[in-house]
């Protein structure tokens, strides 16, 4: 009994790690099999931080412990993989190098050899609305120019951050609810990711995209720090306020210092005010009063109004600070009080000493030494902070992204964001491109030019994002929309990929077809129509199948199906051809359908008693070559009741001659047997010989001869087709 | 496979059965989601999911039979009609599937989608369903397994059904036709077929006027809405109303203002339009642009995807719509 292979989803899909093999952000993802990698190896690779090539580790490894790759492959083993294009999924399995018979050594097979690993970067369900909503924002913004009607652009663009915040809120709420441990872990990972989105997006917005030039970056950065860096525990502040001897509280001054570093003027002023009110020691109270006075002058976005005097006011305040730092009463506030004043006077050493992170230090240096600093001149201050807080090994990816943003290096930002998440980099690249930050002549983009990359960086990342979504076919509209908006390479990819979208229901099929039609994806339209036609044919819905085959320009299949319909009609007589063909648009030009339609109209006219028009249509079918020759015998047999019509002569001499010619062509042909095959069978003799079939036509022959004579005597009046004329009435 | 053999070849197989869910939401606290007119963000509400249940296949249509314990009836892409009972036990709402039966399929060829369902008005005891198999089926609410009547094959694929009264039905076909049936014998009693002489696109939806029994509205895959008077079968009553730029998925008469129609479409918009204004002489040459002068359009700044379904709460005057983006759109009319 053959063993069934185990289909085993692998967790390894989530464990993408970096390889240093290629460092270009434009490398294509590859899959490596690493049999001896450990968690430490993975971490080490991640620390390397070059995740341009995705290495997929199969877990559990198909190669047993202590087995070398060499000996594993010697036993007729290799790795096979099958790619599933519609979902970007890979099935990886242990395959044989040669057929078992060709391999001399008897092979030992284990369960590891029969394991199929399904590798797919799945998307959490909770993220789906976020993806769809940001896709909506993308479509609205990507077509707009930020410099033309900037307010309209901004209204749409700001939706990105709003959608991120909304999703973040949802995740916070979810994390509060009781959940299974697995869900909680997944939720925490998602939360961390989206917090990253939120933080990077807002910082990019402040540095690269703000149109609010009047607002100095120093204040925007401290606002960003307050919103996105939870380094300050507000609970500590509450505890301090609740205590009786606040200045003696061990956290009083550290809290004040942190608030000052973060530019939280209101908080620090409130605490000092409260402390001053309750202070019983007059000397300390005097010192606090002086301190409070200084604090009230801390630069804020409100104090930096564009009246041209902001810098003057700031200089004056700095002088006040310097002055207060030197007054003896400050000594009543102790060393910590002096440190607080050192922060306010912009003492970089003290700031670097007190700040908990480089962001905090950067915010304080910016705010107290150069609050009016332009976003283009941040580098010197940034370097000081990074040098003090970050060694190369300590730098996280998020740090690298933030630093790149503050350096105003759009390309570096995207390069690092590319390692963070495809969603983030795609949307940032789109907005950067619109603001003109991605110039292809930039030297740092020359590696693209040198390899002849025929696209721009924005298109590349949008395509990359679209590909990352392909694991969920329900996102096909967003994927298609992104690919459609990523240049001609994206469109080419789309036309290939959309053919693999599972059609599922007829509603979805219509949506896909409509999308292709609206976006001129003609090749895809044809392919999908062909798939749908085959499905309809399988179900016996011939008219719908014909419609789809016509759309796919598959004339041979249309011919086959019209034959099926005709045969079905001839055999059962119950099929309403007119009804069956109604779904095929009138303007469709296809000879086979036209024949069927004319044939159905002939029957309709005859049924309605319009024998004249019925006769004209019948002759037209024979003479215009519209009817295939194999149906001529049937059509001639259909003429019998018209030839027998006693009230009028339906066919004139010319028509009769034509019909006689057709009759002779059928019975005189070497393919006679084939041509006579469609003739209806009698109930009495279900199997007809060729001779018996020919006898049926002999009746037609006789009637044609008689009609010829009648038409010579009573020539029918010539009337236009479809007129009301019912032919010449017999006078005798 | 025997010992010593590896896998030589594997293929991906298309998994056809999609598992959907059916959920009940509470919308008592209008705060969060919004639908906007002319890009203004004003109205917000916050739906809370109360309960959900699995559903075999894609939900293609859904109706409610009101009562002490409302019953949801669904049509599925698996050709099944399902009944779900909703109840509140111990203050906790629940939804449970109570019955499912496949009513649509191709003999020997498998599944045919159940594309649309309609509940018999007043009596509320029968469900009419139509499917890809081109059949109209009547079944009892109390015994869904039992087919009361099944028509022969009608045309090529049926897309929508509605009850005109408790004794007659209207069915829309993929060939752009309307077919009317007498409920007493749907097998033999197809009353008439109506075909728009100029529009042969697939009719996607159909609805009955709330007070005038002879009036029907249909939407088609080209974004056109037609109003029909079944007493005059030669052509639709109105001129071609090009309400949307893409497939219309649902159309309904406004319950409080029957002169208005509400529709939703693949183009990501909802429309409320005054169809009475379009009662001029029938015009065959439909323009390619929307009839914006008679319609008001609604869309969300964050939704560009298809709006698949709409419903109007006539007491709260709330218009709801569900879209491909997974959002529930909302507006007060």
Automatic annotation (TrEMBL), chain A:
Any one of the GO CC terms: nuclear pore outer ring
Membrane-spanning intervals of the chain: none
UniProt record, GO biological process: mRNA export from nucleus; positive regulation of DNA-templated transcription; protein import into nucleus
InterPro entries: Nucleoporin_Nup85 (IPR011502)
Intracellular or extracellular location(s): Nucleus, Nuclear pore complex
Entry keywords, A to Z: Membrane, mRNA transport, Nuclear pore complex, Nucleus, Protein transport, Translocation, Transport
GO MF: structural constituent of nuclear pore
Function of the molecule: Functions as a component of the nuclear pore complex (NPC).
Family, similarity comment: Belongs to the nucleoporin Nup85 family.
Oligomer status and interactors: Component of the nuclear pore complex (NPC).
Protein name: Nuclear pore complex protein Nup85
UniProtKB/TrEMBL annotation, chain B:
SMART domains membership: WD40
Signal peptide (UniProt feature, chain positions): none
Compartments reported by the entry: Nucleus
UniProt xrefs under InterPro entries: WD40/YVTN_repeat-like_dom_sf (IPR015943), WD40_repeat_dom_sf (IPR036322), WD40_rpt (IPR001680)
This protein's UniProt keywords: Nucleus, Repeat, WD repeat
Gene3D superfamilies linked to this entry: YVTN repeat-like/Quinoprotein amine dehydrogenase
GO CC annotations on file: nuclear pore outer ring
Pfam families linked to this entry: WD40 (PF00400)
WD repeat windows: 216-238
Name recorded for this polypeptide: Nucleoporin Nup43
Organism (species): Modicella reniformis
Gene that encodes the chain: NUP43
């Amino acid at each position: 009994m053959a063993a069934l292979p185990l289909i085993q989803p692998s967790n390894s899909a989530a464990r993408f790690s970096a390889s240093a093999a290629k460092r270009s952000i434009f490398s294509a993802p590859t899959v490596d099999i690493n049999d001896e990698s450990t968690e430490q190896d993975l971490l080490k690779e991640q620390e390397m931080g070059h995740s341009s090539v995705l290495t997929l580790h199969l877990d559990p490894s198909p190669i047993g412990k202590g087995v070398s790759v060499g000996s594993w492959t010697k036993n007729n083993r290799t790795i096979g993989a099958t790619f599933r294009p519609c979902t970007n999924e890979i099935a990886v399995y242990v395959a044989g190098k040669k057929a078992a018979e060709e391999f001399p050594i008897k092979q030992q097979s284990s369960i590891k050899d029969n394991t199929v690993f399904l590798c797919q970067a799945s998307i959490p369900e909770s993220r789906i609305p976020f993806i769809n909503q940001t896709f909506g924002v993308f479509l609205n913004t990507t077509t707009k120019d930020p410099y033309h009607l900037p307010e309209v652009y901004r209204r749409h663009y700001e939706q990105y951050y709003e959608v991120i915040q909304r999703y973040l809120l949802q995740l916070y709420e979810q994390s509060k609810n009781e959940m299974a441990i697995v869900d909680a872990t997944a939720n925490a990972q998602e939360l961390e990711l989206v917090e990253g989105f939120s933080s990077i997006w807002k910082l990019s917005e402040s540095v690269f995209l703000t149109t609010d030039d009047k607002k100095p970056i120093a204040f925007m950065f401290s606002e960003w720090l307050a919103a996105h860096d939870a380094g300050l525990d507000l609970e500590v502040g509450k505890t301090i306020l609740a205590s009786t001897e606040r200045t003696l509280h061990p956290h009083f001054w550290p809290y004040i210092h942190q608030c000052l570093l973060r530019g939280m003027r209101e908080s620090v002023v409130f605490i000092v005010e409260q402390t001053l009110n309750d202070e019983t020691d007059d000397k300390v109270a005097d010192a606090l009063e002086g301190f409070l006075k200084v604090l009230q002058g801390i630069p804020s976005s409100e104090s930096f109004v564009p009246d041209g005097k902001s810098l003057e006011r700031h200089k004056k305040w700095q002088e006040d600070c310097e002055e207060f730092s030197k007054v003896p009463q400050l000594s009543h506030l102790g060393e910590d009080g002096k440190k607080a004043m050192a922060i306010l006077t912009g003492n970089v050493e003290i700031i670097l000493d007190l700040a908990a992170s480089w962001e905090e230090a950067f915010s304080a240096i910016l705010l107290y030494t150069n609050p009016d600093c332009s976003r283009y001149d941040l580098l010197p201050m940034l370097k000081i902070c990074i040098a003090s807080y970050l060694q190369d090994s300590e730098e996280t990816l998020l740090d690298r992204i933030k630093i790149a943003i503050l350096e105003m290096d759009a390309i570096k930002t995207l390069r690092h964001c590319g390692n963070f998440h495809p969603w983030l980099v795609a949307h940032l690249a789109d907005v950067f491109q619109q603001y003109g930050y991605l110039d292809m002549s930039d030297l740092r983009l020359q590696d693209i030019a040198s390899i002849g990359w025929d696209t721009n960086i924005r298109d590349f990342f949008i395509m990359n994002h679209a590909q990352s979504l392909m694991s969920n076919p329900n996102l096909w509209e967003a994927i298609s929309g992104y690919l459609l908006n990523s240049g001609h390479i994206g469109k080419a990819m789309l036309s290939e990929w959309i053919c693999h979208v599972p059609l599922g229901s007829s509603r979805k099929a219509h949506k896909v077809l409509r999308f292709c039609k609206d976006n001129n994806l003609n090749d895809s339209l044809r392919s999908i129509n062909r798939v749908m036609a085959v499905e309809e044919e399988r179900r016996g819905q011939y008219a719908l199948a014909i419609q789809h085959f016509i759309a796919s320009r598959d004339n041979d299949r249309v011919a086959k199906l019209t034959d099926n319909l005709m045969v079905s009609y001839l055999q059962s007589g119950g099929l309403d051809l007119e009804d069956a063909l109604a779904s095929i648009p009138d303007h469709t030009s296809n000879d086979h359908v036209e024949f069927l339609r004319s044939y159905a109209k002939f029957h309709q006219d005859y049924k309605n008693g319009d024998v004249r028009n019925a006769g004209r249509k019948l002759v037209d079918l024979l003479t215009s070559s519209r009817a295939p020759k194999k149906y001529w015998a049937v059509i001639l047999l259909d003429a019998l009741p018209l030839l027998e019509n006693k009230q009028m002569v339906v066919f004139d001499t010319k028509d009769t001659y034509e019909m006689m010619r057709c009759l002779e062509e059928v019975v005189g042909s070497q393919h006679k047997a084939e041509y006579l095959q469609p003739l209806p069978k009698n109930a009495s003799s279900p199997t007809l010989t060729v001779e018996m079939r020919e006898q049926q036509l002999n009746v037609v022959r006789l009637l044609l001869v008689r009609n010829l004579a009648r038409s010579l005597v009573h020539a029918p009046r010539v009337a236009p087709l479809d007129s009301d004329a019912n032919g010449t009435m017999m006078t005798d | 496979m025997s010992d010593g053999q590896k896998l030589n070849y594997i293929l991906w197989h298309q998994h056809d059965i999609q598992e959907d869910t059916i959920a009940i939401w509470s919308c008592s606290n209008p705060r969060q989601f919004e639908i906007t007119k002319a890009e203004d963000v004003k109205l917000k509400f916050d739906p809370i999911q109360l309960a959900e249940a699995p559903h075999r296949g894609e939900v293609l249509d859904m109706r409610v039979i009101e009562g002490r314990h409302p019953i949801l009836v669904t049509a599925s892409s698996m050709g099944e009609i399902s009944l779900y009972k909703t109840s509140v036990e111990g203050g906790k709402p629940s939804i449970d599937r109570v019955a499912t039966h496949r009513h649509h399929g191709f003999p020997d060829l498998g599944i045919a989608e159940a594309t649309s369902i309609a509940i018999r008005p007043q009596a509320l005891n029968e469900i009419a369903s139509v499917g890809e198999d081109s059949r109209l089926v009547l079944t009892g609410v109390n015994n869904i397994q039992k087919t009361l009547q099944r028509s022969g094959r009608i045309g090529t694929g049926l897309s929508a059904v509605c009850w005109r009264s408790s004794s007659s039905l209207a069915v829309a076909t993929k060939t752009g036709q309307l077919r009317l049936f007498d409920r007493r014998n749907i097998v033999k009693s197809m009353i008439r077929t109506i075909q728009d002489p100029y529009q042969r696109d697939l009719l996607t939806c159909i609805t009955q006027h709330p007070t005038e029994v002879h009036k029907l509205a249909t939407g088609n895959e080209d974004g056109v809405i037609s109003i029909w008077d079944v007493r005059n079968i030669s052509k639709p009553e109105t001129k071609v109303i090009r309400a949307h730029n893409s497939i219309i998925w649902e159309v309904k008469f406004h319950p409080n203002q029957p002169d208005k129609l509400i529709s939703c479409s693949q183009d990501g918009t909802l429309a409320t339009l005054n169809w009475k204004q379009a009662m001029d002489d029938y015009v065959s040459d439909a323009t390619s642009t929307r009839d914006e002068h008679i319609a008001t359009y609604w869309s969300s700044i964050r939704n560009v995807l298809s709006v698949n379904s709409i419903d109007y709460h006539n007491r709260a005057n709330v218009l709801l719509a569900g879209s491909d983006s997974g959002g529930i759109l909302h507006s007060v009319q």
